[in-house]
Amino acid sequence: FQRTRTKSLLESHMESHLNTAVCSLETTQNQVKDQSKQIERLTSIFNDKSQQLNDQSQQIDSLTSTMQGLVQQVESLTGQAVLVDKTTNQTNDETNKIGATNDKSEEGK
Fold first, then answer.
1. Annotated region Disordered: where (predicted)?
2. Cα dihedral angle (67, 72, 73, 78), rounded to 10 degrees?
3. Alpha-carbon torsion (6, 10, 11, 12), positive or negative
4. Would the CA dihedral through 63, 64, 69, 75 be positive or negative?
């Protein structure tokens, strides 16, 4: 009878340890499930943010290209304005020379 009782106590003790281990495993399993969901959510957020960054990068490239085109237009217009100023100044100088020559001719009369 003593051996049966000892075996029963050992079995009870082992069963208690196994139940504790099973509870611990279930808790760990639930934590892993929760963490997996959190990882999926964070991965989704990361992918969304990554796509936003790619879109913004493309917008920046497009705006940079547009800006470079505008800079070239401004440089071209500035160059044209300088040519117009030079032409205007030359025309004014020639007009002034003609006017001065006419003034001298009229003084001589």
1. 87-109
2. 130
3. positive
4. positive
Residue pLDDT, tens place only, 36-94? 999 999 999 999 999 999 999 999 999 999 999 999 999 998 888 887 777 777 777 66
Distance separating alpha carbons of residues 91 and 97, to the nearest angstrom? 10
Tell me the residue type at 46: F
pTM over 0.70: no
Task: Classify the C-alpha dihedral 11-14-19-25 as positive or negative.
Answer: negative
DSSP letter for each residue of 5-71:
HHHHHHHHHHHHHHHHHHHHHHHHHHHHHHHHHHHHHHHHHHHHHHHHHHHHHHHHHHHHHHHHHHH
Query: How many Å apart are CA 61 and CA 65, to the nearest integer?
Result: 6
Token pair of 48 as six digits: 């969304």
